[in-house]
């Protein structure tokens, strides 16, 4: 059968050369005939590729060579894989051959033809047909006999025929469907995974929906399943339905290969006919890539506009060519012959578009120079945001990304159409505007087109007329346009109609925009312009004004203009405003972004320019790429169909991090959370002293904020200004000082505090040199390196005794828990490790602990404070209470190698030192100090009992060290910030009312580690920090130390840190601390 009917020259078949009968051997005395096939150049079989790369989705190393054209976002490699596999199978089926052993090992990737080829027909059988659809079961199936055939049990259909002479086509259909699913869910690199998947399907009676229901009911959903479902969803569930039909247990219910050619949405009932006209006077410019030999039509894979299209409707991968002129076509060969033999200059091609997908999604053309196409993925989605001001309660905007350019100037429009009270006008404009724009650009007479401004006016005017003609009922809906990105080189034009805004981005400082401003006779709008640095516009009698937006040299500026909305002439019912075409002039590299208000609900002026600047730094400079990226970012930021309030959190400390970790993630909370902080991680502050001496490593006590699933966006930046009226936060990037603004609906202030130097002379100036704070990880790293450096210098042979005393003099300023814990860690480090490694330096080491108050650890009970002071003195730690450091003074001693420093004390004594750790107090950070809100005497933001900032109720909250509750101040402790965050998270997410129940702090007591297996625990105020206590006893010594370690180990967020911390504790105890300096 194989020798008589095998199509050895077909591109989807491995050429068959003949049959070889190997000579008998002692091991194999009765050898069987072997089929001989031509060797194919390439990476091997699908199985070989997947088991090497384990990238079933993309075949990254060989994708450009094994597929008909380079994969794009419009047609991912998985689509091509599926259609090529169906194409391979259609060949033997058309010849009456059933392969019966379709599996990755039998599909070869061919470099030369850029196709897949089907191999190994050793298990093939002839087609068995009974009454059209084959019914294999007249009796109970007898099962699979592995001794009689080599069919793979993983990929074989459930019926598994013993009959070696004939089989139905449905047998192969099951195999292809199952093989496709293994690639969708990224299982093909592992036989065990595929076998397990097969067993799961069998347990679900090969019902794909039942299998999925079981997966979704599982506690953990694997990433491969999530990715596969994302692929299916992106194709409108067509492949999901098709694959489900292909693997049905009953062979009679499986589709044929013809029906598998295109994933069909079963909910739709009809196709859409498309007629495209091509000129034949130039090179044809039409390439039809054969994708299937089914008899239902030619499957078009790519249309290349190398010739000149007269009226070219957009053709997408998946469209089926049905006619050339009046002649019906079924195969690729006939289609090509008919096209070549068409008379006249115009060739008319008819296509059918299968239902189940949006016709606007597909490969789009860049119209203009006709020299080629720019292909990128288009989107057709709604954007918008939720606010409590009534401006945007639902997603009414449509986003269409397409690239259009004219020969005279590169204008890229990626339109946003705003529906103003409804979406019907917006959707109409989105579906029609670009076709009208294209028709005008393609006018054979350039005089009919006019400049780009005129083209935009004409296109918009046509849309308005068409909308009014069909707008008898829904005539109150209006629409505005557009989202455009313009390279402002020379004078160019862009459509601006309705409530649109234009933003200029200029690295050269040269852009000038001329446009009509939005409500220029409104004094508030005038003030906005003046605040932005623009000249006060002069308004005409009709309320219109022209403004120029100059830029300062060498400074990035963002010029703002919105077109006229109220009072503008309405050219037709249902259209909000007249289309104005603004002009701008700039230098190469300048950009102008124009968009409707819906886009600016996602971006504001500055961060749109900031985003463009980042694209330029990433070498993305083409207009279509920038427009596509802007559209994608807008959609990614706020395109959720249930978009809720935008919650912005300042700070990633105990308050900010716990807001994010406690933020509700279920469907009942439509709010989105964004975080702004100069630190991209949360630090478990009680363990910072341990890292300063190497007991723990730095990364073991930090958690990156981006790992929190609730944080939709994180900005590593510092907040410079908060505008409560405009509800915006102005920041500057930490790396390049780029200024940008983030809008908010709800704002949580959790920016914390900074170390207070009390304006002590030279403390801030010497910070990072000899003086170190102890609040962040970089402080601890500096202390650790400085300590080792002092010992290494002191160990040098030419260092004098006096200088060794100075170098190894450690002063700790402050008597709180952080200072005492660091003093204890430092003592352990010195006595257990450094003195052992530097035995000759032990006599020079001194530790001095200075506290301006009457005792150490002021908030603790008196007996615990006494215990600590006695313990420190026993350890030869020089404790000085009631004394303050009045200045740090640099000085030079000729006997010292370099400049030295000394601390001047309030009792008149001077102490030379090598290292000072300053942890004496806290003060507000700059943004807190600058806020125009009520503050306490200590500069903390005053809130009510619901943590709301006074005067900003319902919009702004403050938690943690930067705030204090009016009438009920709380200590600046981590547990306070954590409990406030856990209380506030469901409130700002909208799950709880903001005044349901006031915040109540439950004190867990206070702890301090004293090193060497000792600690203290104050339980006298457990429950209520304002007087009620006695719920737990005070602890000291080893029991308290064990409680301290257990409590802080249990509070770690990630499993990794819960493993790392005890590991480092054991390492330090058993092998000593690391003294490497790097």
Automatic annotation (TrEMBL):
Catalytic activity annotation: a ubiquinone + NADH + H(+) = a ubiquinol + NAD(+); a quinone + NADH + H(+) = a quinol + NAD(+)
Pfam families: NDH2_C (PF22366), Pkinase (PF00069), PP2C (PF00481), Pyr_redox_2 (PF07992)
Domain PPM-type phosphatase per the UniProt entry, residue ranges: 382-633
Enzyme Commission designation: 1.6.5.9
Membrane-spanning segments: none
Keyword Oxidoreductase (UniProt): yes
Top-level EC class as recorded in UniProt: oxidoreductase
SMART domains: PDZ, PP2Cc, S_TKc
MF term (GO), any: NADH dehydrogenase (quinone) (non-electrogenic) activity
CDD domains in the record: PDZ_canonical, PP2Cc
Superkingdom per UniProt: Eukaryota
Keywords assigned: FAD, Flavoprotein, NAD, Oxidoreductase, Transit peptide
Domain called PDZ: residue spans: 274-346
Residue span, Protein kinase domain: 1-268
GO cellular component: a single term: mitochondrion
PANTHER family documented for this protein: EXTERNAL NADH-UBIQUINONE OXIDOREDUCTASE 1, MITOCHONDRIAL-RELATED (PTHR43706:SF47), NADH DEHYDROGENASE (PTHR43706)
Protein family (similarity comment): Belongs to the NADH dehydrogenase family.
This protein's name: NADH:ubiquinone reductase (non-electrogenic)
Protein source organism: Triparma retinervis
